[in-house]
Amino acid sequence: IENKGFFIYDDDGREVLAELTYKMNGDILIFDHTYVSDKLRNQGIASKLLNIGVVGKRLIVILRHQIMTY
Q1: More confident residue, 55 or 14
Q2: What CA–CA distances, in Å, run from 48 to 8, 9, 40, 63, 67?
Q3: Rounded to whole angstroms, how far apart are CA atoms 59 and 63?
Q4: How high is the pLDDT of residue 59?
Q5: Any residues with CB less than 8 A from the CB of 39 and at least 6 apart, and which?
Q6: Residue 56: left (phi > 0), alpha (psi -120 to 50), or beta?
């Protein structure tokens, strides 16, 4: 299992303002944690991160498939 994530940092890059972490178990994508700071709450940030996560992983899978095909 490989652990990864999508993160939003403050302008200085020091503080994580929001995150979505996931694990890959073979070909299975498991989103296992979301966090949104009070500074960004009630803006739909967790939902946006989830959408980015799903789209991003689809693109990676497609790219991996294309690379393996050649």
Answers
A1: 14
A2: 11, 15, 12, 22, 28
A3: 6
A4: 53
A5: 17
A6: alpha
Q: What is the mean pLDDT of residues 43-68?
A: 66
Question: Can you tell me the distance from the alpha carbon of 52 to that of 21, in angstroms, rounded to the nearest whole number?
Answer: 12
**Torsion from C-alpha of 9, 29, 31, 25, nearest 10 degrees:** -100
Whole-model pTM: value is: 0.65
Q: What is the pLDDT of residues 6-32, one digit of tens each?
A: 888 999 989 999 988 888 787 777 888
**How far apart are alpha carbons 61 and 17 in whole angstroms?**
27
Distance CA 46, CA 69 (A): 34
Which residue's structure tokens are 């050649």? Answer: 70
